[in-house]
UniProtKB/TrEMBL annotation:
It comes from Enhydrobacter aerosaccus. The chain holds residues 331 to 591 of 854 of the full protein. It comes from the Bacteria. Residues 20-243 form the Histidine kinase domain. This is histidine kinase.
């Protein structure tokens, strides 16, 4: 599929370009940050200078966040996929989501009682959902509702014939729905492009959705955006469903009696 290929090439190029630079930048920012902290200690009692230092610290921190995102993007950590109960993962993430969304936003989490598993890297799925929630928050400056829904979905032959990367079958669907600004068609069309952002200088990196896209594609999944201006956005992640059981990490780590590592 032409578009998917182009997307892959773009991500490859960005990854190579930024890997080394982001690393050096991160080190530089650490030094800036450490010195600002020292100066703050020297300036105790000097409110004007302290507030200026605070602004400088905040800027350095934004820079550090950006470079960390660039690093994560370029490092392309190899995925460590394993059968994962997606509903449980979302349920366990809800505390963190609530925290990230802040007080003006209502969080609803709808998770099935059934255990639907997908073979994915759980840490990367958490990152992906967090990224989507933060985009949802940013689209609702006056507050609103974010709903994260996990369900079972079938993508049929007809759907697959319209989306060349999709194989027909059973998927676990994670739908992140907001009541925010919505996205014009031209924003939806470019949303997965690395560095595409409509956010204010310093607020967005344009890497969130391209990272989510990379994760979903590497997991043989499918992602789509449905959005209506003034009503909100739904970002759907379809991850191929597996019947393989979840391996309990705790029992895996404990070696059997007499066993040696
Ligand atoms: P960033 O969040 O850093 O801008 P992303 O790749 O995550 O980068 O998103 C790209 C753009 O897509 C955003 O700048 C925004 O315009 C749009 N977008 C993403 N999610 C939403 C959403 N839930 N509602 C409205 N617009 C969105």
């Amino acid at each position: 599929d032409e578009a998917a290929l182009r997307q892959g090439q773009k991500m490859e190029a960005v990854g190579q370009l930024t890997g080394g630079m982001a690393h050096d930048f991160n080190n530089i920012l650490q030094i800036v940050q450490a010195n600002l902290d020292l100066i703050k200690e020297d300036m105790v009692g000097n409110e004007v200078t302290l507030s200026r230092l605070q602004s400088a610290s905040a800027a350095a921190e934004r820079g550090a966040r950006l470079t960390q995102q660039l690093l994560a993007f370029s490092r392309r950590q190899p995925l460590a996929p394993r059968p994962t109960n997606v509903g449980r993962l979302v349920h366990d993430l809800s505390g963190l989501l609530r925290h990230a969304l802040g007080e003006r936003i209502t969080l609803e989490v709808a998770v099935p009682a059934e255990a639907w598993n997908a073979t994915i890297d759980p840490g990367q799925l958490e990152n992906a959902i967090l990224n989507l929630a933060i985009n949802a928050r940013d689209a609702m400056p006056e507050g609103g509702t974010v709903r994260v829904e996990v369900s079972n979905a079938t993508l049929d032959r007809r759907y697959a014939s319209l989306h060349s990367e999709v194989s027909p079958g059973s998927y676990v669907l994670i739908d992140v729905i907001d009541t925010g600004t919505g996205m014009p068609a031209e924003v939806v069309a470019r949303a997965f492009d690395p560095f595409f952002t409509t956010k204010q200088e310093g607020k967005g990196t344009g890497l969130g959705l391209s990272m989510v896209y990379g994760f979903v594609r590497q997991s043989n999944g499918h992602i789509r955006i449905d959005s209506a201006i003034g009503q909100g956005t739904s970002v759907k992640l379809y991850l191929p469903r597996t019947l393989d059981p979840v391996v309990d990490a705790a029992s895996e780590a404990t070696s059997p009696a007499g066993g040696t590592a």
